[in-house]
């Protein structure tokens, strides 16, 4: 009996090769424990609202009005909604071609793309073309679209930072390309060394791989580092020399928790360089409404901006976008609101600023609480979360712990994380899901649990860790020898 | 479309570009550098060096004719009176609300409340929203963890959509079919299209994998198959029998493909049909199910138009219902059923809501589907909520039922009238025959064009139906899609026209269409 099409053996191999760690063994175990009644603290996905962060009021008011435009005609509407939300809802409705229920242009509503271009210009000081900005159902869809355009076969390599956000490894597998890793330097605060980049590229080429693109995640995920101007300069020059398209994942640009390295977009640095590089290096930049202080993950709003991509390629990208008809319109409106925020003098401005500042400052405090908390633990070293939403401490597992993991048939960091979960209910993602140097172990948690819960979480972690280390450290156990 | 050099040539071209750019490094070039006829400033991602599957893929619904229409629209705006019409009428795309169809009030009330839940804490809300919309919003927010509509649905199994909403959808499916549905078989997606892509991704391993598709078909299928590197195996619907689907034709095409070394993996059936509008008879559906079972094919049932039926003698039966009523149990028939919030009487295209119900396959495969779905984290929550509302609308006795039912029947009866009016109009044109639209949102009239017109089309390198569609647009502002975008029996020509312009615009459209057609036939009379 020949295998049926949807039998496991006859599936597309590329699908089978995909590993997406953000849900893996830890997830399954956490879920089981949850069903048994144990309290689980989920720190595995950058999903702020699921952990109690409140949505910003103003955008929700605007989108609610856009969903139900008949409210705008009701005499009572002013009791429930402030005038600026009403005005903004009317503005966005006027940009649609039939309200929220109509497919928009496959690239997104022109009026909103214009708002995005204006935002980019204000941010960077260089004009941006709305025609080269495509709105997408979350940044992930945009990343997948671009990778699918670049990858022709398994000989096409994409440079990806290690550790990385596993969307990249998953997408590269799915599209049948090759992942070319470049290692970030943990001792140098997860810095990027151009020499390592060169080595990675050379090694790949020796294997017959054509390296086509380079991914940077700035601020980094899971590592949180913010790239310096010098770093950005260096890697753009590198892309120019090696003829790579730069894919700049900048979704965490609003999440910056230190002043030494503010966010600078790859595009700004590129344009600062002037010709020839500013006119030649191909760049695609990604952003989203899921992160920052907005955290509107469930809306699926994102965009990518293309720089120096030839018109014919843009046409092909447009063509593929049109097969999926259009990005979701409410998500597009969230994007418009994010890039075109309230101004001083607007009725809702003060409240909006208060809400946003509270979120950002709390994130910054939590970044510190977590980093300090981890660093106070035995055999744990943690770089400061300069940006993004995660902490990625290194756990220096004693050799006996590694052996115990082996005996249990688990990777050492998975073993540690499972034990952590069972003991404390804290659900994390083992570092192996993101990539790490051989023999070096980490785990990723978010900094998103509520601030008031943080001290207890860190205390619980420290208790577990220090006991674990006592149990497995060498000077215990062989006491009779 | 440009035809490109082979893979190897592309690599050669790229290799030489690389050699000219990078410093000497110890890499082994697998092919010698060739004289590059490329623009040196072209960079990595040029049309010569992108994924060839992207180049192969086409989607006529938003193709060339639409770009031209948009140019004309801009011209009308900049210079009113510059064309013999006042406005562009987009009859190319099933996008009802862009042409004035109103959304269903109850659905929008619930969505607004879910988007801004703090409304539910205010007493004034009762003055603006119906009580059952408020109740439904509470129900929905209760099944969303943390009431956080801004959160990814992230817990286990929730990546395929929020559990409580899938429960509601499964209940709705059971109500509709009279057979149970499992919430864990449901994957909520940003519209039906991403779900179709996922299945193509899963099923297609190489160009030796074929998918049987109806001709004419909705070009998502051809585009998706091309994007995933598979082969489209066409089966022709019979225009002379109202676009009938014959098993003998299926068999013939299947054998043909197999003899060419193609492994046929799945059968796509669109019911009601797009662009053809036919609704399958039950007997036909049973034959199709048996055919798939006997030949070991996955049945991909595109049922997005299930609420758009305009004839009394036909009824929508889901393929799920048919298989269960034939006595087949879950794991005997691999069946994937697609539904969307974009069509029906709700027409919420812009929300991107939909799902696929996947039955008849094992846990291992389901893992893989889940994995692919979770790379994109989850579908948008607003769309998920809407899908649950569409499958569970107000019932008799609910406060909003009367007005909901009025909204629904108003839209559906208007669609039926417009379908008939346009069908009659097309049939009244010289050389044009148009099958009835039993369902869906389109008419697909056949044009018997004079030889002179066909020659004129050839002279400008256009397919005759594209030539006709372009002339129609230039003369009247009406945008239709040439039949070649959907596939048709070679040597026949069609256009697809939606039935969606508002009813009060229909008479003007018909008279302009008639005037244009008469003039066209006169001009090209043999």
TrEMBL record, chain A:
It holds the Pfam family Aminotran_1_2. One of its GO terms (cellular component) is peroxisome. Its cofactor is pyridoxal 5'-phosphate. Residues 84-449 form the Aminotransferase class I/classII large domain. GO terms for biological process: L-alanine catabolic process; photorespiration. It catalyses: glycine + 2-oxoglutarate = glyoxylate + L-glutamate; glyoxylate + L-alanine = glycine + pyruvate. Its EC number is 2.6.1.2, 2.6.1.4, 2.6.1.44. Signal peptide: none annotated. SUPFAM superfamilies: PLP-dependent transferases. The keyword Transferase applies. Keywords: Aminotransferase, Pyridoxal phosphate, Transferase. Transfer of C3 units between the cytosol of mesophyll and bundle sheath cells to maintain a nitrogen-carbon balance in the C4-dicarboxylic pathway. PANTHER family: ALANINE AMINOTRANSFERASE (PTHR11751), GLUTAMATE--GLYOXYLATE AMINOTRANSFERASE 2 (PTHR11751:SF373). Homodimer. This is Alanine aminotransferase 2. It comes from Musa acuminata subsp. malaccensis (Wild banana). The lineage of its organism: Eukaryota, Viridiplantae, Streptophyta, Embryophyta, Tracheophyta.
TrEMBL record, chain B:
GO terms for biological process: L-alanine catabolic process. Homodimer. Transfer of C3 units between the cytosol of mesophyll and bundle sheath cells to maintain a nitrogen-carbon balance in the C4-dicarboxylic pathway. The lineage of its organism: Eukaryota, Viridiplantae, Streptophyta, Embryophyta, Tracheophyta. Pfam families: Aminotran_1_2. Its EC number is 2.6.1.2. Keywords: Aminotransferase, Pyridoxal phosphate, Transferase. One of its GO terms (molecular function) is L-alanine:2-oxoglutarate aminotransferase activity. Gene3D superfamilies: 1.10.287.1970, Aspartate Aminotransferase, domain 1 (3.90.1150.10), Type I PLP-dependent aspartate aminotransferase-like (Major domain) (3.40.640.10). It catalyses: L-alanine + 2-oxoglutarate = pyruvate + L-glutamate. Its cofactor is pyridoxal 5'-phosphate. Residues 159-503 form the Aminotransferase class I/classII large domain. This is Alanine aminotransferase 2. It is an enzyme of class 2 (transferase). Belongs to the class-I pyridoxal-phosphate-dependent aminotransferase family. Alanine aminotransferase subfamily. InterPro entries: ALAT1/2-like (IPR045088), Aminotransferase_I/II_large (IPR004839), PyrdxlP-dep_Trfase (IPR015424), PyrdxlP-dep_Trfase_major (IPR015421), PyrdxlP-dep_Trfase_small (IPR015422). Pathway: Amino-acid degradation; L-alanine degradation via transaminase pathway; pyruvate from L-alanine: step 1/1; Photosynthesis; C4 acid pathway.
């Amino acid at each position: 009996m020949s295998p049926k099409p949807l039998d496991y053996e006859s599936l597309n191999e590329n699908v089978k090769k995909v590993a997406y760690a953000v849900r893996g063994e830890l997830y399954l175990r956490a879920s089981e424990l949850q069903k048994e009644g144990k309290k689980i603290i989920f720190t595995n996905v950058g999903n702020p609202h699921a952990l109690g962060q409140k949505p910003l009021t103003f955008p929700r008011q605007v989108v609610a009005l856009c969903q139900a435009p008949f409210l705008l005609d009701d005499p009572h509407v002013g009791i429930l909604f402030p005038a600026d939300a009403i005005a903004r809802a009317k503005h966005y409705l006027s940009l649609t071609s039939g309200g929220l229920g109509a497919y928009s242009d496959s690239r997104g509503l022109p009026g909103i793309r214009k708002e995005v271009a204006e935002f980019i210009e204000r941010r960077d000081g260089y004009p941006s073309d709305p025609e080269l900005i495509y709105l997408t159902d979350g940044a992930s869809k945009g990343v997948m679209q671009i990778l699918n355009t670049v990858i022709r076969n398994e000989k096409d390599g994409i440079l990806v930072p290690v550790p990385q956000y596993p969307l990249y490894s998953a997408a590269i597998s799915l599209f049948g390309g090759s992942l070319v890793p470049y290692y970030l330097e943990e001792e140098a605060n997860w810095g990027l060394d151009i020499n390592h980049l060169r080595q990675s590229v050379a090694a790949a080429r020796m294997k017959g791989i054509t390296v086509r693109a380079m991914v940077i995640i700035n601020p980094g995920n899971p590592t949180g580092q913010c790239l310096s101007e010098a770093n950005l300069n260096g890697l753009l020059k590198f892309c120019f020399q090696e003829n790579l398209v730069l894919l700049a994942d900048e979704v965490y640009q609003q999440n910056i928790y230190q002043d030494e390295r503010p966010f600078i977009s790859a595009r700004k640095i590129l344009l600062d360089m002037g010709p020839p590089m500013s006119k030649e290096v191909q760049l695609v930049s990604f952003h989203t409404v899921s992160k920052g202080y907005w955290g509107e993950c469930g809306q699926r709003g994102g965009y990518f901006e293309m720089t120096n991509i030839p018109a014919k390629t843009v046409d092909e990208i447009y063509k593929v976008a049109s097969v999926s008809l259009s990005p979701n319109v409410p998500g597009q409106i969230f994007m418009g609101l994010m890039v075109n925020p309230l101004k001083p003098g607007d009725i809702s401005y003060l409240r909006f600023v208060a809400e946003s500042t509270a979120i950002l400052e709390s994130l910054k405090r939590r970044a510190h609480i977590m980093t300090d908390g981890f660093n106070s633990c035995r055999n744990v070293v943690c770089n400061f979360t300069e940006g993004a939403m995660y902490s990625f401490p290194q756990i220096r597992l004693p050799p006996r712990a590694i052996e115990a993991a082996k005996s249990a048939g688990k990777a050492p960091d998975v073993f540690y994380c499972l034990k952590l979960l069972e003991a404390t209910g804290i659900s994390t993602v083992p570092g192996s899901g993101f990539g790490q140097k051989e023999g070096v172990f980490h785990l990723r948690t978010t900094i998103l649990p509520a601030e008031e819960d943080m001290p207890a979480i860190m205390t619980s972690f420290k208790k577990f860790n220090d006991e674990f280390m006592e149990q497995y450290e060498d000077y215990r156990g062989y006491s009779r020898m | 479309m440009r035809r490109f050099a082979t893979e190897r040539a592309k690599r050669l071209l790229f290799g030489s570009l690389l050699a000219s750019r990078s410093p000497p490094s110890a890499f082994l070039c697998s092919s010698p550098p060739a004289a590059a006829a490329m623009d040196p400033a072209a960079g990595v991602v040029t049309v010569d060096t992108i994924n060839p599957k992207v180049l192969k893929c086409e989607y006529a619904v938003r193709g060339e004719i639409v770009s031209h229409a948009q140019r004309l629209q801009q011209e009308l705006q900049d210079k009113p009176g510059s064309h013999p019409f006042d406005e562009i009428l987009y009859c190319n795309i099933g996008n009802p609300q862009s042409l004035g169809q109103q959304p269903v009030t109850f659905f929008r009330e619930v969505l607004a409340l879910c988007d801004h839940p703090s409304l539910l804490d205010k007493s004034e809300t009762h003055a603006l929203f119906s009580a059952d919309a408020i109740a439904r919003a509470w129900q929905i927010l209760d099944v969303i963890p943390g009431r956080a509509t801004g959160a990814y649905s992230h817990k286990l199994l929730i990546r395929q959509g929020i559990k409580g909403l899938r429960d509601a959808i499964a209940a709705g499916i059971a109500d509709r079919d009279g057979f149970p549905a499992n919430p864990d078989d449901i994957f909520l997606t940003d519209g039906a299209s991403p779900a179709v892509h996922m299945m193509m991704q899963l099923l297609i391993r190489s160009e030796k994998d074929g998918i049987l598709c109806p001709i004419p078909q909705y070009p998502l299928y051809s585009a998706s198959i091309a994007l995933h590197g598979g082969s489209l195996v066409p089966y022709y619907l019979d225009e002379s029998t109202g676009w009938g689907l014959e098993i003998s034709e299926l068999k013939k095409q299947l054998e043909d493909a197999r003899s060419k070394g193609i492994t046929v993996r799945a059968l796509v059936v669109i019911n009601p049909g797009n662009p053809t509008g036919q609704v399958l008879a039950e007997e036909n559906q049973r034959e199709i199910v048996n055919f798939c079972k006997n030949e070991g094919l996955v049945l991909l049932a595109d049922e997005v138009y299930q609420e758009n039926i305009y004839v009394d003698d036909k009824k929508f039966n889901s393929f799920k219902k048919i298989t269960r009523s034939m006595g087949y149990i879950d794991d005997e028939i691999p069946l994937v059923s697609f539904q969307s919030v974009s069509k029906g009487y709700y027409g919420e295209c812009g929300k991107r809501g939909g799902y696929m119900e996947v039955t008849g396959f094992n846990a291992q495969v389901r893992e893989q589907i889940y994995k692919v779905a979770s790379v994109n984290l989850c579908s948008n929550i607003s769309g998920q909520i809407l899908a649950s509302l569409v499958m569970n609308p107000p019932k008799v006795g609910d406060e909003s039922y009367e007005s909901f039912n009025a909204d629904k029947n108003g839209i559906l009866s208007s669609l039926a009238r417009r379908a008939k009016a346009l069908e009659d109009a097309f049939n009244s044109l010289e050389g044009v025959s148009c099958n009835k639209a039993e369902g869906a949102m389109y008419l697909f009239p056949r044009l018997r064009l004079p030889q002179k017109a066909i020659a004129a089309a050839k002279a400008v390198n256009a397919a005759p139906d594209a030539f006709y569609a372009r002339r129609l647009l230039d003369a009247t502002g009406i945008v239709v899609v040439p039949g070649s975008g959907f596939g048709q029996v070679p040597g026949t020509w069609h256009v697809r026209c939606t039935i969606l312009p508002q009813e009060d615009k229909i008479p003007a459209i018909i008279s302009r269409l008639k005037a244009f057609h008469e003039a066209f036939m006169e001009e090209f009379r043999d």
